[in-house]
Design goal:
205 residues; mainly alpha
Length: 205
């Protein structure tokens, strides 16, 4: 029997709070049950286990980030839209570090779940930002990957403390990176002169 007051949405919210406090890897069904004041078995009528619980936290994080991104880019174009989008992710990460980590787990969602998540909204925001530049449609996938990997990579390194013991402050680098992306997107060429093959393990020995 499902206990009154316990829903999938409630479990996801408690899991998200736990992720921010202790880290996404510490989100377990047992810990969420403890925080809800119930026994772990009583939660199985809502989620199948810790894996599904974490998936719900991931979906929640994606939705929250998408809502913030939508607000950040509304009515903007070009560098203003690019800055708004990037800052919305960075601000969210600092306010909700565990949820930001959870959002990266979207790569592990099955195709149907991913399609029904807020993931496609994030892609549309990025596409909208790129339409304010001269990036040709055929290159959009490359530009989307560059933007996503640069923004998420910087945020992940910054939050891990990688920039704490060097100068200048990370905020200055962040501003320079956004400026660099803006410059790149404004002068994007149609195609590279040469498509390089992926690196091989033996190349680094």
């Amino acid at each position: 029997m499902a206990r009154a007051g316990i829903t999938r949405a409630r479990l996801a919210a408690v899991g998200a709070e736990l992720a921010d406090e202790l880290g996404f890897e510490r989100v377990t069904l047992a810990e969420v049950a403890r925080r809800c004041g119930v026994q772990t078995p009583s939660l199985y009528s809502h989620v199948s286990g810790t894996g599904e619980l974490r998936e719900q936290v991931t979906l929640l994080a994606l939705e929250e980030m998408a809502d913030r991104a939508a607000e950040a880019v509304a009515g903007l174009a070009g560098k203003a839209a690019l800055t708004g989008l990037a800052n919305s992710y960075r601000d969210y990460a600092w306010q909700h570090p565990g949820r930001f980590t959870a959002s990266a787990a979207a790569a592990g969602l099955d195709a149907e779940t991913a399609a029904g998540s807020a993931g496609p909204r994030h892609a549309r925001f990025t596409e909208a930002v790129l339409r304010g530049y001269t990036v040709d449609p055929e290159s959009h996938v490359h530009a989307v990957r560059m933007l996503g990997s640069t923004v998420r990579g910087f945020i992940t390194l910054e939050m891990s403390g990688s920039f704490d013991h060097s100068s200048p402050p990370a905020a200055e680098s962040w501003a320079q990176i956004i400026h660099g992306l803006d410059t790149l997107f404004r002068s994007w060429s149609t195609a590279p002169d040469q498509v390089l093959p992926p690196p091989r393990a033996e190349d680094f020995r």
